[in-house]
Design a protein that fits this description.
Largest sheet: 6 strands, antiparallel
Structural class: mainly beta
Shape: globular
Strand content: 35-45%
Number of helices: 1
Distance between the termini: 29 Å
Order of helices and strands: EEEEEEHEEEEEEEEEEEEEEEEEEEEEE
Length: 535
């Protein structure tokens, strides 16, 4: 997290979820060369593994870039109508997929060529996106001059300074737009304090193996999301069971025609802040198969949660988790104000909750269930919510990738009522009163991002997966109760093996022995299904 994001991305984390700059993989972690993967239609996909160079090929030696590029912010007054336009909730019945799995359902709309070949950078990106739609312009287009090197053998380029203007919007709210339908405030329902001591520690799970199952999205994937739904590049892939026999899969910032790797795209590449698909295949051993996307036109995945797409106001809206209570679906999301130039950081306006009563086709943001990010102190800006028993538990981190994990809970019937929340503080559930939400006790040591949690019925244990930047890993922790004691992190993914990997969102149909989760990779900016075998 979209979480890519966005930081990864333009995020998507989303959760946009992108990743902080990480070192290149050491030689011992690099896999042997292998030809690019290919789907049954002969379309070349992406390989997120770190691999050796192709054999018997002469690799050109990279030449040092003599250019010193300096970004120069250019202030630009931008008027922002408030409250803004109403969300576009145009929806269509999906076009039936052809019997031939290699045929394009809408050849007049999409018939995308293979993405341009690019050389991925080493390590992981900072995630700082370009301003949507803004061209990469330079103040100097003159070719570099050359000077002899110290040995006099050959000329080398002299250092050049290139000033790169970067638009820095200064949003000015002005009256305008269409006011949303007012939502009646929920009745105050303060929950009394309750003891919640940490449970005894349990034995950490033994991860026997982890393998890449399939590429879920993008060109060359089994789902052919580029030709079928104009989803060429995306991230995150948050999954929850929306009804018996079906799961929803929500993605972060999504780009269509015109996008090509590396990384997220720009505003003129069919940018949607988020998209949602459905899946009903239970045999995940061969991959995650998507049945369809929510669509606003033929073969075009719709943006389900609107965003203003204005830097320093609201650049995007990234889903961070999804869940169902009865027939109502819920999404937690973060409203991203801007991406930071500091790797692994971004700034949010708030974290909020939206709901859907039509199985995820259209969504409404709650006007009351949101957590404002006052002075950057908000503890539940990137939230993951999980129903269990009579409650829905909310695990949250501040904006960015360097925050601690806080915990709250709310009666399942009161998800949209902030007064009914309780925050876990020093071994007690304390009511939503004053600054209590800012004082929630961290449930584990260290920082975390892109949280994914589930209660495993097979083992009667809670599972937590997240990106641990300090370890350069996507890790697994387990506990008997939401508040802990949580086990030490166990490695699932090493970023040295999967350069630019982030995310790690568990599939609800995982079992005590087989843990399936999605993983995003910034270089290819697409989503993959992973399988961990647990002892």
């Amino acid at each position: 997290m979209g979480f890519r994001p966005t930081d990864v991305l333009i995020l998507s984390g989303a959760l946009t979820v992108g990743a902080i700059l990480l070192p290149a993989a050491p030689a011992g972690a690099i896999e042997p060369w292998a030809p690019p993967p290919m789907n049954s239609c002969g379309e070349t996909g992406f390989d997120p593994l770190a691999r050796e160079a192709p054999p018997a090929t002469e690799q050109p030696q990279p030449q040092p870039d003599p250019t010193i590029r300096i970004q120069v912010p250019v202030p630009q007054i931008t008027t922002v109508p408030v409250p803004g336009p109403k969300p576009d909730k145009t929806r269509i019945e999906p076009v039936a997929l052809p019997e031939d799995p290699c045929a394009a359902p809408c050849p007049d709309v999409r018939s995308s060529p293979k993405p341009a070949e690019t050389t991925p950078p080493e390590g992981n990106p900072t995630g700082e996106p370009a301003t949507p739609g803004e061209p990469d312009v330079s103040s100097s287009g003159a070719p570099p001059t050359t000077t002899p090197n110290a040995g006099g053998d050959a000329p080398r380029p002299a250092p050049q300074i290139e000033l790169q203007p970067e638009t820095e919007p200064i949003p000015i709210p002005v009256p305008g737009g269409e006011p949303p339908e007012p939502q009646a405030p929920p009745a105050v329902d303060v929950q009394p304090p309750a003891a919640a001591p940490v449970a005894a520690a349990i034995t950490p799970r033994d991860v026997q193996s982890v393998r890449l199952v399939n590429q879920i999205t993008g060109h060359g994937s089994v789902n052919r999301t580029d030709n079928r739904w104009s989803v060429d590049g995306t991230d995150l892939g948050l999954i929850w069971e929306n009804k018996p026999g079906q799961v929803s899969v929500v993605f972060g910032d999504t780009f269509g025609k015109g996008w090509s790797p590396i990384g997220a795209g720009t505003g003129d590449q069919d940018w949607r802040s988020n998209t949602l698909a459905y899946s009903s295949n239970h045999d995940l051993s061969n991959g995650l198969v998507l049945d369809n996307f929510v669509q606003d036109s033929r073969c075009h995945a719709a943006e389900i949660l609107d965003s203003r797409k204005i830097k320093n106001f609201e650049v995007t809206t990234i889903p961070t988790s999804g869940f169902a209570v009865g027939n109502r679906q819920y999404l937690t999301y973060m409203s991203v104000n801007r991406w930071s130039k500091i790797p692994g950081m971004w700034w949010t306006n708030n974290g909020g909750i939206a709901w859907s009563d039509d199985n995820g086709s259209t969504w409404t943001k709650s006007q009351w269930a949101h957590w404002d990010n006052l002075f950057g102190l908000g503890r539940f800006q990137v939230a993951t919510m999980v129903p269990h028993g009579d409650y829905v538990y909310m695990f949250g981190t501040p904006n960015g990738r360097m925050g601690v994990i806080g915990l709250a809970r709310v009666p399942a019937a009161q998800v949209l009522n902030k007064t009914a929340y309780q925050y876990w503080t020093n071994g007690n559930w304390v009511p939503a009163d004053g600054a209590n939400e800012l004082l929630a006790t961290p449930i584990v040591s260290g920082t975390a991002s892109e949280l994914s949690l589930r209660y495993d019925q097979d083992t009667g244990q809670w599972q937590m997966v997240y990106l641990d930047l300090q370890r350069h890993q996507i890790v697994l922790r387990t506990a008997a109760e939401p508040q802990g004691t949580w086990t030490d992190p166990v490695k699932l993914i090493d970023i040295e093996d999967y350069p630019t990997a982030y995310g790690g969102f568990m599939h609800p149909w995982s079992t005590g022995k087989d843990l399936y989760f999605t993983m995003s990779a910034w270089n290819s900016y697409n989503v993959y299904l992973m399988h961990a075998s647990l002892k």
